[in-house]
Amino acid sequence: MRITALAGGVGGARFLRGLRAHLDRTPELADSTVTVIGNTGDDITLFGLRVCPDLDTILYTLGGGVHEGQGWGRADETFRVQGELAAYGAVPQWFHLGDQDFGTHVVRSQWLGQGLSLSEVTARLAERWGLPQQGVTLLPMTDSPVETHVVVDEGEGPRAVHFQEWWVRMQAKVPASRFVAVGMDQATAAPGVLDAIRQADVVLLPPSNPVVSIGIILGVPGVRDALRGATAPVVGVSPLISGAPVRGHADACLQAIGLESTTAAVAGLYADFLDGWLVAPEDEGTVTGLPRLAVRGRPLLMTDVDATADIAGAALDLALELKQR
Ligand code: GDP
Ligand code: CA
């Protein structure tokens, strides 16, 4: 089976690891391939290096190198380089980059500087983390530089800051009025992205942030149209349980675009292409007004790989059920 998934960082990566575990434990699905379309709106240039947080979280998680407790960054990390940068007064200091993590950003920046595209660079990084051996292809949503900026007002009038500054430095506590995907008007989908949606047997939306992860990917020219026209069923997993994000600030993101923080509102954002929606049991009756959407309730906490594999299995089962219709 050809599975295509759209993914942000931690929520996306954990779901994908569970998906791979489910495929591996299911003999008739074991030779399935997974193509991941990753969000690059979080990307930022720091200390002259290109950092792609969501792509790296997926690489580290699938490759077994992630800091489990944190969900991002490397396990057993040290911060000596950041300490040296601080000693020089180099900024910003609010974005934490470990020494091993720096290695990724250095080599990525080197290869980009040699003229490789972000897709080509990501494929090289994925080799090191063993994704091809798992049947997983990680595609950045676009090779064009796109950065999500956030319009905030700290009392001195509106100004735009990089998404990471709002998310990490401000902890999403300063109210946001708008998200702007800077560069998107010039962007095209990366090679393979639109075909991965058109040729998939199943399209999955992991429980990633609906606004600043999935929402940004949906803004890449052609992606939304490809999803609307896809022959494959599109099944999503809610990132909200009883209206609250399991982690992160999806509620603040939804509020910024004028929506309630509910799983129904998230489904509404995908209504033009979504066929199936997994929600937490307590949310099952709350998604109304979308008669075409098949809603199923089940526990959605990705507490460990096994529990996550069960969630991914349920998403695939729903997709296969919808395929027979
Ligand atoms: P980020 O880029 O690191 O913020 O990660 P994503 O965009 O991929 O995912 C963030 C979303 O994952 C948040 O909105 C969380 O609510 C959601 N999430 C995290 N853990 C879980 C979980 O165990 N279950 C569910 N259903 N959602 C989760
Ligand atoms: Ca992210």
TrEMBL record:
InterPro entries: CofD (IPR002882), CofD-like_dom_sf (IPR038136), FbiA/CofD (IPR010115)
Signal peptide: none
GO molecular function per UniProt: LPPG:FO 2-phospho-L-lactate transferase activity; magnesium ion binding
Pfam families recorded: CofD (PF01933)
Record flagged with keyword Magnesium: yes
Alphabetical UniProt keywords: Magnesium, Transferase
Keyword Hydrolase: no
PANTHER family reported for this sequence: 2-PHOSPHO-L-LACTATE TRANSFERASE (PTHR43007:SF1)
NCBIfam families xrefs: F420_cofD (TIGR01819)
Protein name (record): LPPG:FO 2-phospho-L-lactate transferase
Organism lineage: Bacteria, Bacillati, Actinomycetota, Actinomycetes, Micrococcales
